[in-house]
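New to this. Explain these tokens.
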Amino acid sequence: MVKVLIIEDSEETVELLKVILRNENNIEIYEASSVKDGMKIITLKKPNIILLDLNLPDGNGSYVCEKLRKNPTLYNNPFILAITAETSQSSINKNLELGCDDYIKKPFNQKELLIRIKKFIKRVPEKKQELTYEKINVNLKNKNVVYDTDNVTLSKNEFKLLTFFIVNKGILLNREKILDHVWDDNLEISNKAVDQCLKRLRKKIPLLNDALVSKRGFGYILK
């Protein structure tokens, strides 16, 4: 399943983009009307392709490009197609330099846009079915975890937490990012929930006692 995020404040344009994409197989569409909402969906859902309006009500879409390209592993390094009414070459060059993979000018030709999007769909890698970290093997399809040679039974949140750290190995993750990714609704969840879940995970997989390091005041990092 290819995840496509539309970040656009014009409802008319969003509906048009959805019409263009609706006949494509294996596409899951998300939408946001602001930079803030767009970044939240990017963090939670890790889209493969982003259709990005560069002029949004709460900020310039260029911020999204710059943010994602500074930390590609954390944000799944999506393809970014900029949709812009700006026609100056200097503006186009600037956004390509910041990390947009392609752009199309408003008003756009529907067929041309679909061709550009399909180009990215073909380049989306197939999702990995397994993750490995030292003696830990995680099967993403059947949610099975093996440590050394033993099967390990994990809760849903423990499994999501473990895979999140493995995917982001070497990256310092604060509690807010962990809460956003692991807990479906974190409004009523305190930061202590992260510590408690990690404590259970370390007990079940002793390797993490040394490999998963706490940086006081900053978060955690899997070495």
